[in-house]
Amino acid sequence: MITLYDPFERMHFGPGRCFLTGQPVGPADTVPVFDDWLQATYGLADRPFYLLDHSQTTYGALRLPLALALHERLQSLGHAVQAAAAAGPAALRALPPAQLWQWLGKIFYGIFATELVQQQQPLIKPQYPLAENKHLLHRIRSFFQLLQGLRVPTDYADFVPGSVFVLEADDAYEAPVFELDDDLNTLVISLKLGPSVLVATLIDIGFIGQAMRQVYADAQRPLHPAQVAEFKARAYYAAYLLAAVPDIYPRRPGPHDPPGTELVLDALVDDVTATVFNPWENLAYGHTLAGLWPRWGLTEEVILRNPFEPLTLLYDALGQPQGPAEAAEQLAVLAYG
């Protein structure tokens, strides 16, 4: 069984050590956080990327140190996602969920590691120091153990490491071709790749996917961009409410594990005595929703006019799923109301 690397023991997140194995690597042994094909397709290489301390870098400058032996494995993963993204939302949904989770997880970890290295600069005094947030580091540590599945063929035993949703944005409505949202504190990330929108909660081992399965089923159609934003708000708020952090246990593959498996990861959450989700509060959800709806001028006051039923564009007044045209009409009424 491989020995899982833990960069949190000595807080090794900078250059010089492979981010997956911890072995020494040269300064040229790096991979882009955002794959080369992603940068080329959406013109990201020189696009500014803003960090928590308000400093600026570029998407192309974000890189992770990686042992040479692992380059082919990560490239293969990236190529699989590239082909699916070119084919559209249905092809992305057809990918194994763990594969999409690993690809998005690598991007998320690359952003997190960049932020952490930046905050360790001697002249930086971060407003929200990540290294001092013990609860966050505990969550990231569990996430990183699951991300070790990037190293070798891995079986996530009877669970998915996180919940990944694939939405389709209706291209009849104006929206950015590429869009990134992430929240380091709740371990969520979303990427818009043309008509496809990937939303992932990275450390819930499927709890959020189960809780949102009906909303996700109702969202399997082209959506107005504001409907996409509402779905994201629901996923982001669910990640905020998530109280359970899984304990991860590696073990050797057994005779019943898939052929070729080199690592098996078990996840355990004490959901008998522990609370999986904290209680839902409409006021807090309305705040999350307002943060994703500024493009349409929808404020918390509008969202919470009925404090018992926050505004929704995914569903009509009877609670039935509605299409993008109906959502656009509803937005027009709200704009002049």
Automatic annotation (TrEMBL):
**Top-rank taxon:** Bacteria
Q: Mind telling me what this protein is named?
A: Uncharacterized protein
